[in-house]
Write a structure and sequence with these properties.
alpha/beta; Leucine Aminopeptidase, subunit E, domain 1; Aminopeptidase; 8-stranded mixed β-sheet; 15 helices
């Protein structure tokens, strides 16, 4: 989608479709009032009849007809902004996404819109433009790679923001560019997650990383099995050994020459998780292609960080493997030696994400990081605790945790702190090794994090358990079914606001 800005008056636009907005229980003002006047009071009539009230994401679609004071628009779409007291950047994203998706579903290819919230909504013009671009592009995302029919579905190709104030145009252009880059990176992560496991293999993720490096000036290193063995990544190699697909460990670096202590982003990249010898139930196992959504988020974030030229040293680490059962697969009772030398007794092979992250967290030490954030679809227990509305957050550093929380609030990729007390470490004590890879069902999200904490003691660290938020079974204003691309916008916001 091409999103641009033009100075002018929305009511005078020659576009086939216009988008304006209205707060709940309010009369038309500003741009909406001007369009209403051109329409001969059609918006006011809908309000008076009770057919539309401006509730959040409510839509009113009008067809002016040829006789309406020479009005050129074939359609006018009014989107509700909800109550003014509740309006914020997220409401602006949702308004833009709701409107854009409705027009795309109608087959509209070009439209003109006002900037939601930069007037009576009180939003900064640049931030409002960023929200509009994000909401519109994310809402119009489609994953049609494997459809043999309906390939010619129309898309909303051009969206023009019409702004009357010349003083705001430069800020709006900046915001639109930023929003487009962040949304594009999020949609990359969505694609990676939505691809099936027979396509999005560890080698495929490595090829995507190399492409991102070429296109965006990142430094890229891909470590194969031989390299992992030399490093001593015994946990990652054990998870991989039951699969015919070879694992890959991916290292991407942005602004490496800037130096200093980097922000390190880590993603769990289990491209398909059968549970291994501790086989999962067959029902919904197809969703286990989403077990690499943490890795997808890191790859998307690294694309955005590079394209936005964020002036920080940022490192992305992805451990990519499958977890399958065969005669070579690791087993309950096995003891694994990790990169740091610590040992883990295997109780359940379906608790594999923490194993590959243990080696990833160990590898991160070489960067002397200012902070490390890992994302992983780690535990069903976190879904039980928080549902699908927030990611679980565990941390050994209050300052880093607060930065991540603020980034989550800004992007509406919310996180919620969960405990990491010593009692959870007690649950993973092993009779034969330094620890075991699961402490049983009670407190499962916290015991999984407790294992990770053993490998992150040398730097500030946050673990985000995204098992309940990485993919969705229903569409939302700018989120389709399938992989959400969650984490990209949070990580990018963290990097953009990072100060050592």
């Amino acid at each position: 989608m091409n999103i641009r800005v033009r100075q002018g008056q929305i009511q005078a636009e020659r576009s086939t479709t216009l988008i304006v907005n209205l707060f709940q229980d309010a009369r038309p003002t500003g741009a909406a009032k001007a369009v209403d006047q051109v329409l001969g009071g059609m918006i006011s009539a809908a309000l008076d009849s009770g057919d539309f009230s401006g509730q959040k994401n409510e839509l009113l679609l009008l067809y002016p007809g040829k006789g309406r004071k020479n009005h050129a628009a074939r359609r006018v779409l009014v989107v509700g902004l909800g109550k003014p007291a509740d309006f914020d950047l997220e409401a602006a994203r949702q308004a833009a996404g709701t409107a854009a998706r409705r027009l795309q579903d109608l087959g509209v290819e070009e439209a003109a819109t006002v900037l939601h919230g930069s007037g009576a909504g009180g939003l900064d013009a640049e931030a409002a433009a960023e929200a509009l671009a994000e909401g519109s592009l994310l809402a119009c995302y489609r994953f049609d790679h494997y459809r043999s029919v309906n390939q010619a579905r129309k898309q909303l190709k051009t969206l023009t923001v019409v702004e009357s104030s010349p003083a705001k145009l430069k800020a709006i252009r900046r915001g639109l560019r930023t929003g487009v880059q962040i949304a594009s990176a999020t949609n990359l992560a969505r694609d990676l997650g939505n691809h099936p496991g027979n396509v999005a293999t560890p080698i495929y993720l490595a090829s995507v990383a190399r492409r991102l490096a070429r296109q965006h000036g990142l430094s890229c290193r891909v470590i194969d099995q031989g390299g992992m063995k030399k490093l001593g990544m015994g946990a990652l190699l054990a998870v991989a050994q039951g699969s015919a697909q070879p694992p890959r460990f991916i290292v991407l670096e942005h602004h490496k020459k800037v130096g200093g202590r980097p922000l390190v982003l880590e993603g769990k990249g289990v491209t398909f998780d059968s549970g291994g010898i501790s086989l999962k139930p067959g029902d919904k196992m197809e969703d286990m292609k989403f077990d690499m959504c943490g890795a997808a988020a890191v790859l998307g974030a690294m694309q955005a960080v590079a394209s936005l030229k964020v002036p920080r040293y940022v490192v992305g680490l992805v451990a990519a493997t499958e977890n399958l059962p065969d005669g070579r697969a690791f087993k309950p009772g096995d003891i694994l030696k990790t990169l740091t030398g610590k040992t883990i007794e295997i109780v359940n092979t379906d608790a594999e994400g923490r194993l590959i992250l243990a080696d990833t967290l160990g590898y991160a030490r070489r960067f002397n990081p200012a902070g490390v954030v890992d994302l992983a679809t780690l535990t069903g227990a976190c879904v039980v605790a928080l549902g699908h509305h927030a990611s679980g957050m565990f941390s050994n550093d209050n300052d880093l945790a607060e930065r991540v929380r603020q980034a989550g609030e800004h992007t509406n990729e919310r996180v919620w702190p969960l405990p990491l007390w010593a009692e959870y470490r007690e649950q993973i004590k092993s009779d034969y090794a330094d620890m075991k890879n699961t402490g049983g069902r009670p407190g499962g999200a916290s015991t999984g994090a407790a294992l990770l904490a053993e490998f992150a003691s040398e730097y500030p660290w946050v673990h985000l358990d995204i098992a309940g938020t990485a993919w969705s079974s229903q569409s939302k204003p700018y989120t389709p079914k399938g992989c959400v691309g969650l984490g990209v916008r949070l990580l990018v916001q963290l990097a953009r606001t990072w100060k050592n």
